[in-house]
TrEMBL record, chain A:
Compartment list: Cell inner membrane
Annotated membrane topology: Multi-pass membrane protein
InterPro entries assigned to the protein according to its UniProt record, in alphabetical order: NqrB/RnfD (IPR004338), RnfD_bac (IPR011303)
Primary role: Part of a membrane-bound complex that couples electron transfer with translocation of ions across the membrane.
Name recorded for this polypeptide: Ion-translocating oxidoreductase complex subunit D
Presence of keyword Flavoprotein: yes
From TrEMBL, chain B:
Required cofactor(s): [4Fe-4S] cluster
Lineage, uppermost ranks: Bacteria, Pseudomonadati, Pseudomonadota, Betaproteobacteria, Rhodocyclales
Keywords: 4Fe-4S, Cell inner membrane, Cell membrane, Electron transport, Iron, Iron-sulfur, Membrane, Metal-binding, Repeat, Translocase, Transport
Domain 4Fe-4S ferredoxin-type: 357-387, 397-426
Organism encoding this protein: Aromatoleum bremense
Subcellular location: Cell inner membrane
This protein's name: Ion-translocating oxidoreductase complex subunit C
Region (Disordered): 508-548
Length: 335, 548
């Protein structure tokens, strides 16, 4: 028998995921216009891979396929994998990344809602460890034509050094390691930088920010994680920058470069693998920001968000447990 | 005027569907061919039957005498003949049966002699007793006897009259406030006096502007008595604890009563019933019921207690595709299993449901931990954690996460994008815990009985031995010629001591077993340690029913 409540909000996992995909569109548009139009091809490859993989593994697990495919969660995962991978990867790296995310991270842990780790971030970490050189090829904005991008993705010749450049984070990092260099001089030397972050990539940051605000307005995410992540990244980088402006890049640079904005609204906020209590969300996102900054500046990789997310994923059960909100009436009366 | 309102966490805004019936004035429902008046009118007690079949009764005549402190009297709701006593189904989720008096109305609707009751002329206790003989119980929720809620006349600072009516579809309180505002406030004045309140507040959701206007107008006739407060429309603002929170900022914890915090809450219908009882000498024999949903003629009716739902439904003309009926609102109401159930003092609304109006929920998907449920929960719970523990049958953990603070308002299930029937899981866990407790109690009793039998056997053995020894001593004494006069008494003493010891031990054991159904986890519940981790460890939980 059906019990109360007899009415439900017309919300569904599908509508939530659809909203996330919509929210990614401004960022994707900026990506296509500013950096590499080939990302559309990658998204297509990843989407097909994700759906096929999901269907296959559901068949293996003897589960109904249609509801899981139509909930669009696999598509969201696939898109996030693509958006945090370099755009001119050979197609099979993308496929591999998506397979890791869907098959290993999502389904081997029990399917939707069960994975303790962020699938896209596991895929990123696995691939950067397995294929470090491929995973560090980022195209300089607006310098490779679409045909070449397509050739690179679909298996054309690789002309690595001739066409790939460093990301802003990478350039800053290697630049600062040459003796005598300061943030100032590095910024002037290279054409990699735009106004505040990587040239062209700054627009992506704006696009993701716009999408994030849309999700906030639609109540798909709460403010806690983006605010805690952005604020912490700004504060930590601000402290270093204020202490030694010549050797540490300013906060705005950190926020506008690499995957900071994508992470703030789309990666850190993954509900399944993140903390869930209001205070827990703040701690979780702030922790990611701190670790990511430390890895970016002092670690072995130019970008540290993926590792930071996985490390904090490990802490989620503890964070959630220690931050349970006070239950109604257990706070003592406050007239 | 109230300086500011407070707010409670969470809450939802479902479509109100009040327009269907809110413009329709209260009309008297015609006399049904038969009335079935349950002798259980306030949940916690059954009245003793005072009538026999064949007897003629008048409207308002006592047909049941309330028993115990929580009992209230039961009255005939119209004049007629008692034609039988029979068990009847109650409109209760449990589907409980209870004894009912069946009355065939004579059509005259002839009242007993009605006399106003001067509550100023008698001691307070007498006034409370009078309310209980008038059968006054809370008409908003559980039907708790009003005379009990009025307490001891001290310590209640704030009296709250609940006119929030936050459930969708229901408009009976709205109409009552629009049409009988003065009676409600007159009742509020009586309650105010009896409870010894310093101030009285009426909370009404701001989606009922006419009711607010009518009540404010009527309030001018009771200068300085009440503040009519418009509160934001947000389900479940009419929940007693939520309303108290909104109006006073006080949070009543689970298991605590408003009285402990100096507030008490009564429904507008109850206030009106108090007015009718005191100023008109009328016991509570009817109430306003909203008929709405998938019907041709929705409306609000003054319905005699005991009117079977099926006779009432004819007034509304349900449409042919109606597939079931709900009693109460769509958020917390129940499906009526048997349409012969009578309208009781707490039956506020009958909704005809159709698949179009209340579509069956889409299939349940796994929880994506989106937190929407936690954002909606007015009790600040983490419903998805409770869901996880309930699913894993880890009821101890569920209790630790405050399962018993859940008021089953349904907000969480309403918002869940995975369409998980969260409240059903919580009801299940609660019933599990109650069952275990009952089991524990029975096994405790069994053990006590067993232990007592052992003591008795032991005692009898020792008594025998003592008797034998006494006899032997007697014989010895006879033989030696010197009697031992104290021996007879000592045979008794060890016996008494043994019984006392046994009883003391049993008592101690009983005291050592702590009640499990409490708001806060007791010391026996293992600490909040690896609990949440367990959710990660059971990837295959969904195998069982996610496929359905
Ligand atoms: S709303 Fe539903 S899916 Fe979201 S966390 Fe709660 S139970 Fe899980
Ligand atoms: S039903 Fe219980 S858990 Fe769900 S929102 Fe209401 S109080 Fe919270």
């Amino acid at each position: 028998m059906i019990h109360s409540p007899y009415i439900r909000k017309p919300a569904s996992v599908q509508s939530v995921m659809l909203a996330v995909l919509l929210a990614l569109l401004p960022g994707v548009t900026a990506y296509v216009m500013q950096v590499a139009a080939v990302v559309v091809v990658n998204l297509l490859i990843a989407t097909v891979t994700a759906l096929v993989a999901e269907a296959l593994i559901l068949t293996l697990r003897k589960r109904p396929i249609a509801p899981a495919l139509s909930d669009l969660s696999a598509v969201v995962t696939a898109w996030l994998v693509v958006l945090c991978f370099p755009p001119i990867l050979p197609w099979w790296v993308t496929v591999l990344g998506v397979l890791i995310a869907i098959v290993a991270v999502k389904h081997l842990y029990g399917g939707l809602g069960q994975n303790p780790f962020n699938p896209a971030m596991v895929a990123y970490c696995a691939m950067i460890v397995a294929f470090p050189s491929l995973m560090s090829q980022w195209p300089p904005a607006g310098q490779i034509d679409f045909q070449t991008q397509l050739d690179l993705v679909l298996g054309g010749a690789r002309q690595l050094d001739a066409i790939t450049g460093a990301t802003a984070l990478d350039a800053m990092r290697t630049g600062l390691r040459t003796s005598g260099a300061s943030v100032e001089s590095v910024l002037q030397q290279s054409g990699t930088f735009g106004a505040v972050g990587g040239r062209g990539w700054e627009w992506l940051a704006l696009g993701y920010l716009a999408g994030g605000l849309f999700m906030l307005a639609r109540r798909i995410i709460t403010w806690h994680m983006p605010v805690a992540f952005i604020a912490t990244l700004a504060v930590v980088s601000g402290i270093f920058w204020l202490a030694e402006p010549a050797h540490f890049a300013p906060p705005l640079f950190h926020l506008a470069s690499g995957g900071a904005m994508l992470a703030a609204f789309f990666i850190v906020t993954d509900p399944v693998s993140g903390a869930t209590t209001p205070r827990g969300k703040l701690i979780f996102a702030a922790g990611i920001a701190v670790i990511a900054y430390l890895i970016r500046v002092f670690g072995a990789f130019p970008e540290g968000i993926a590792f930071a997310v996985l490390l904090m994923n490990l802490c989620v059960p503890l964070i959630d447990m220690k931050t349970q909100p006070a239950v109604f009436g257990h706070r003592g009366s406050r007239p | 005027m109230i300086a500011r309102l407070f707010s409670f966490h969470g809450g939802i805004k479902p479509d109100s569907h009040k327009n269907e019936s809110s413009s329709l004035p209260i009309a008297a429902a015609p006399l049904p061919p038969r009335l079935t008046i349950p002798l259980r009118q306030s949940v916690r007690s059954v009245a003793r039957c005072l009538v026999a079949p064949g007897q003629r009764v008048l409207k308002g005549e006592r047909i049941g005498a309330g028993e115990g402190p929580l009992g209230t009297d039961v009255h005939a709701s119209t004049s007629g003949t008692v034609v039988g006593l029979a068990p009847c189904a109650m409109a209760h989720a449990s589907g409980l049966n209870t004894l009912a008096v069946i009355i065939e109305p004579d059509g005259k609707d002839e009242w007993i002699e009605r006399r106003a009751f001067d509550h100023h002329a008698v001691p307070r206790e007498a006034a409370l007793r009078y309310l209980s003989t008038c059968g006054i119980v809370g008409m908003g929720g559980a039907g708790f006897p009003t005379h009990i809620k009025l307490g001891n006349g001290r310590g209640i600072e704030t009296l709250i009259i609940n006119g929030a009516e936050c459930e969708p579809w229901i408009t009976c309180d709205d109409r009552l406030m629009r049409e009988r505002a003065a009676e409600i406030l007159s009742g509020a004045a009586i309650l105010h006096e009896l409870i010894g309140a310093r101030r009285t507040l009426v909370g009404i959701e701001d989606n009922k502007p006419e009711a607010i206007r009518a009540m404010r107008e009527a309030a001018t006739g009771f200068p300085g008595l009440v503040d009519i407060v418009a509160i934001p429309t947000r389900y479940p603002a009419g929940g007693e604890k939520q309303l108290i929170r909104v109006l006073t900022g006080i949070e009543i914890a689970h298991g605590k009563l408003g009285t402990e915090f100096g507030v008490q809450c009564f429904n507008v219908g109850t206030a009106q019933a108090v007015h009718r009882a005191i100023h008109h000498g009328e016991p509570l024999v009817s109430r306003v019921v909203t008929l709405t949903g998938n019907v041709r003629h929705p409306g609000n009716y003054e319905v005699l207690v005991g009117t079977p739902v099926e006779t009432l439904l004819a007034l509304a003309a349900p449409k042919p595709d109606t597939d079931r009926y709900l009693m109460g609102g769509p958020m917390m109401g129940i499906t009526i299993a048997d349409l012969s159930v009578p309208i009781g003092k707490t039956s506020n609304c009958i909704i005809a449901a159709s698949p179009a109006l209340f579509p069956p929920p889409p299939p349940e998907l796994p929880c994506i931990r989106c937190g929407a449920c936690a954002r909606a929960c007015p009790a600040d719970l983490q419903p998805f954690e409770l869901y996880w523990f309930s699913r894993a049958k880890n009821v101890g953990k569920a209790q630790e996460y405050h399962l018993f603070d859940c008021i089953e308002c349904g907000s969480c299930a309403f918002v869940c994008p995975s369409h998980i029937p969260l409240v059903d899981y919580f009801r299940f866990s609660k019933s599990e815990i109650w069952a275990r407790e009952r089991e524990l109690k029975t096994s405790d009793q069994a053990r006590e009985r067993f232990e007592f039998r052992n003591y008795r056997q032991e005692r009898e053995k020792e008594e025998k031995a003592a008797k034998l020894a006494a006899k032997a001593a007697e014989t010895r004494a006879k033989l030696t010629g010197s009697a031992a006069p104290t021996d007879a008494a000592t045979g008794d003493d060890p016996k008494k001591a043994l019984i006392a010891a046994a009883l003391a031990r049993a008592k101690q054991q009983a005291a050592a077993i702590e009640p499990r159904n409490t708001d806060t986890p007791h010391a026996g519940v293992p600490g909040a340690s690896p609990g949440i981790a367990s959710r990660r460890e059971q990837p295959d939980l969904h195998d069982s029913d996610a496929t359905s």
